């Protein structure tokens, strides 16, 4: 699996490959496992080799989705913590069964200075996350919640069905269950979907 990681991310220096093999460990995680908890110091950079991780912030009884970390990606907020000793401002939870590459943060900064391919990985991670956050901000600022909800449902549709509870949707979109339920009823009335027991049927 590390060979795939090296190839996809362009880690071509043999010395760096050996460093990663020597100092990093690979772990497996099931859905619901926390990889990062808010207000904890980050000691390890986690890169998703396989699977998907949900990164979010929590305030009282609401959760705000920041982004998903997918295969061959890392959490930018965790990566930034590798360059200074600071606490996490987010939670990261496994969304689907995942295989994680864990690199102690003491190596991350040095590798950025010593290896071009690792420096490229760091820079590209920051750029990609910045673009994503700008897109997320634009959606929050300019797109009505009803439209964001419909777009989200379409993106999660499998064979015209979405298996998400109203509470799950509220967490994903940073609102309350009551607001989501009201919007779903409006979308149902407009013929966009049909509400079923524990699932949502999307209509073409």
Write the layout of secondary structure elements.
Elements: H1 2-9, H2 14-23, E1 25-29, E2 34-36, E3 44-59, E4 62-70, E5 73-74, H3 76-81, E6 91-104, H4 105-114, H5 116-142, H6 145-155, E7 161-162, H7 166-173, H8 177-189, E8 193-196, E9 199-202
Antiparallel strand pairs: 1-6, 2-6, 3-4, 3-5, 3-6, 7-9, 8-9
Helix pairs in contact: 4-5, 6-8, 7-8
Summarize this, please?
With 204 residues, the chain is of the alpha+beta class. The chain is 46% helix and 29% strand.
Describe the structure in your own words:
This protein is α+β, with helices and mostly antiparallel strands and 204 residues long. It is 46% helix and 29% strand. The chain has helices at residues 2-9, 14-23, 76-81, 105-114, 116-142, 145-155, 166-173, 177-189, and strands spanning 25-29, 34-36, 44-59, 62-70, 73-74, 91-104, 161-162, 193-196, 199-202. The strands form two sheets. Strands 1, 2, 3, 4, 5 and 6 form a six-stranded antiparallel β-sheet that branches. Strands 7-9-8 form a three-stranded antiparallel β-sheet. β3 and β4 (62-70) form a beta hairpin. α4 packs across α5. It is elongated. The relative contact order is 0.14. The model has no long low-confidence stretch (mean pLDDT 91).
Note poorly predicted spans: none
| Element-by-element helix/strand order | HHEEEEEHEHHHEHHEE
What's the total helix number?
8
Strand content: 25-35%
Identify the overall geometry: elongated
Please give the largest β-sheet.
6 strands, antiparallel
Mean pLDDT: 91
Strand-pairing-aware structural class: alpha+beta
Helix content: 40-55%
- Give me the Rg, rounded: 19 Å
End-to-end CA span = 40 Å
Task: Count the E strands.
Answer: 9
């Amino acid at each position: 699996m590390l060979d795939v990681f090296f190839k996809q991310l362009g880690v071509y220096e043999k010395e760096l490959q050996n460093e990663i093999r020597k100092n990093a460990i690979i772990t497996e995680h099931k859905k619901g496992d926390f990889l990062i908890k808010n207000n904890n110091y980050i000691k390890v950079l986690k890169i998703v080799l396989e699977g998907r991780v949900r990164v979010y912030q929590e305030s009282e009884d609401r959760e705000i989705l920041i982004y998903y970390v997918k295969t061959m990606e890392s959490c930018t907020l965790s990566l930034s913590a590798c360059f200074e000793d600071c606490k996490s401002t987010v939670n990261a939870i496994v969304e689907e069964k995942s295989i994680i590459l864990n690199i102690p943060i003491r190596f991350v900064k040095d590798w950025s200075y010593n290896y071009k391919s690792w420096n490229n990985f760091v820079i590209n991670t920051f750029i990609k996350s910045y673009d994503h956050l700008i897109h997320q901000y634009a959606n929050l600022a300019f797109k009505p919640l009803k439209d964001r909800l419909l777009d989200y449902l379409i993106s999660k549709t499998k064979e015209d069905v979405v298996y998400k509870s109203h509470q799950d949707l509220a967490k994903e979109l940073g609102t309350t269950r009551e607001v989501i339920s009201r919007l779903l009823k409006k979308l149902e009335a407009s013929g966009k979907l049909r509400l079923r027991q524990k699932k949502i049927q999307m209509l073409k």
